[in-house]
UniProtKB/TrEMBL annotation:
Protein name from the UniProt record: C-terminal binding protein
Limits of the D-isomer specific 2-hydroxyacid dehydrogenase catalytic domain: 19-277
InterPro entries referenced in this protein's UniProt entry, alphabetically: CtBP, D-iso_2-hydroxyacid_DH_PdxB, D-isomer_2_OHA_DH_cat_dom, D-isomer_DH_CS, D-isomer_DH_NAD-bd, NAD(P)-bd_dom_sf
Residue ranges of every copy of the D-isomer specific 2-hydroxyacid dehydrogenase NAD-binding domain listed in the record: 83-255
Keywords: NAD, Oxidoreductase
Family the UniProt entry places it in: Belongs to the D-isomer specific 2-hydroxyacid dehydrogenase family.
Molecular functions (GO terms): NAD binding; oxidoreductase activity, acting on the CH-OH group of donors, NAD or NADP as acceptor; transcription corepressor activity
């Protein structure tokens, strides 16, 4: 559990004579952990992308710098989202389920329109969102995106409002950080703004999506399909409604993974630490 990981980290901190950098992954680095750190520690280095397990305001109030490893799995996540979108577009979950139950049909249950006629909406246009767009721009008609801080524009995608993205997109992938503002941003209201034929993917943070609301939306035909790689809590609960939802692909937070990504994450973290300590 998260509490167990916190206690394990605190025990490890207390066992050290000196700490200059705290390297961590999943364990929460909150006030209880930060208060255990000696004054010699000046850097909190996450082995991973998201920083929602860090109490950043409290860390900064203690003079600590917080770094992550933002580049190590850009390709992996973008490729998995692409695979999810393609599988949903071709209705693999529904077709496979029917086939396993003894059915046989030359057409999927819902009419499919060519991918090259479709609009992809990317909610969160950072490193991974842009990488996804670079892959998918060859396959779809149009790419639109929403980002509060969109960065440099590109000539192959158009910036739109969040509502327009929800209402216009045939395919939607979310790549937002988890904040107080984005928690449960995919909920009954935002799902109702999507097309009935919309396909949705989340390989960012589990708490961006309300599990009850998206399960209801899938089961009641509010949207046509979804794929989720991340959940809140991190391990999908045995009684989660997501386990029974229709037209839903579930994976166990695997989007980040390749052998190369594992190595790159460690190298990126070490280089960050070396640079910070000026070694």
């Amino acid at each position: 559990t998260i509490d167990d990981k916190r206690e394990t980290l605190i025990d490890a901190i207390r066992a050290q004579e000196r700490i200059d950098t705290l390297l961590f992954c999943i364990a929460p680095v909150d006030a209880a952990v930060i208060d255990e750190l000696p004054e010699s520690c000046t850097l909190l280095q996450r082995l991973g992308t998201g920083l929602d397990n860090v109490d950043i305001p409290y860390a900064e109030s203690k003079g600590l710098i917080v770094h992550n490893t933002p580049n190590y799995c850009l390709e992996e996540v973008a490729v998995q989202v692409t695979a999810n979108l393609l599988a949903l577009h071709r209705q693999f979950p529904a077709v496979e389920a029917a086939l396993r139950e003894g059915g046989w049909a030359a057409k999927p249950p819902i009419p499919i329109h060519r991918l090259s006629t479709q609009t992809l909406g990317i909610a969160g246009f950072g490193r991974i969102g842009r990488k996804l767009g670079e892959i998918m721009k060859l396959l779809v008609k149009r790419i639109i995106y929403f980002d509060t801080y969109p960065g440099e524009p590109v000539d192959w995608a158009e910036s739109v409002s969040f509502d327009e993205l929800l209402q216009t997109s045939d395919l939607i992938s979310i790549h937002m950080p988890l904040t107080d503002e984005t928690r449960d941003i995919i909920n009954r209201d935002t799902l109702s703004k999507m097309k009935e034929t919309a396909l949705f993917v989340n390989a960012a943070r589990g708490a961006l999506v309300n599990p009850v609301d998206i399960s209801d939306a899938l089961n009641n035909g509010v949207i046509a399909g979804a794929a989720l790689d991340v959940f809140e809590p991190e391990v999908l609960l045995a009684d989660s409604p997501l386990r029974e939802a229709r037209n839903l692909i579930l994976t166990s937070h695997t989007a980040w993974y390749s052998e190369e990504a594992m190595l790159d994450a460690r190298v990126e973290a070490i280089e960050s630490i070396v640079d910070h300590l000026d070694l």
